[in-house]
What we know:
There is one protein chain. By secondary structure, the chain is α/β, with parallel strands linked by helices. The protein has 13 helices and 5 strands. The protein has 2 domains: 9-118, no CATH class; 138-283, Rossmann fold. Helices cover 54% and strands 10% of the residues. Strands 1-2-3-4-5 form a 5-stranded mixed beta sheet, sandwiched between helices. Strand 2 (194-199) and strand 3 form a beta hairpin. Residues 93-104 have low confidence and may be disordered.
Amino acid sequence: MSGEVALTPTQCDAALRLLAAFRPLSAVRGDDLQRAFAQDTNVMEVFLQIAGLTWKDARRLSSVELPAEPSPFLTPLQFASIVALVHFARVTRGRAPVEVITSDLPPDEVLDSSHANGVSLGTLLAQRAAGGTWLAHRSRTSASVRIDVVSDICDDLQAAGVPFRASIKDRPYTKSARYLSEEVCAPGKRIGQLAIVVRSSNGTPAAAVCVAVAQDGGTARKTAATLLPVPLALTIPAYLLLAGPGWQSRTETLGLFHAFEGRVFTDRGRTDLVAALQQQYEGA
Length: 284
């Protein structure tokens, strides 16, 4: 599979031609997919894209177990299950790709017509793959930024001699997000953005730190809505650090400022956050 590199329209069209050489795309069978895939490994990704699916989706939805990556050594039953999955996804409302949903034609006719007429189906599938690749890349990079920000705060707290627990992996102070939530939330409450819990001198929770990353305004708006009730769910003072360009000039930050009682910082103000947490620890 292509990972973070989307296939080009030319590559998609070449893969489709291999499949269509056996029979119309709407009638492709498992053995057709197997033979085409043996000639061009892009065939599997393109065939799944016909239904708006990825290999990860196929592994999750397939009626038989599939390996971590597609392989020419898949069994005939595995190839057949992938074909059945793509056919089912193409004709099922709520799962079907947009060209099927917006057409009055039967799904099979839409597919074969798209391949034969107008803008090439390869171009359509390449655009779909590129969009999914970008969204997946943005999600991964946002998660990476958050980990880096939380790690920097943890390093600063350690340097200041402030005890804490954090929800990032493979550190001496690591605790799961669920553990931290259960420790500092009111009964029946749980929050997803909780990153760090500062301890008091006697080891009890003293302050909670949430970290929210937004690369665009839409993400900032949605994230702000989930953050507003956070302080009310906690049994200790809540602090918030906002990172990423999505938070710039957002009116939602005013509501967050009030909800967190002024304890809102940006990634550029990390040292101020750490100083405030140190005061919280010393006063606890």
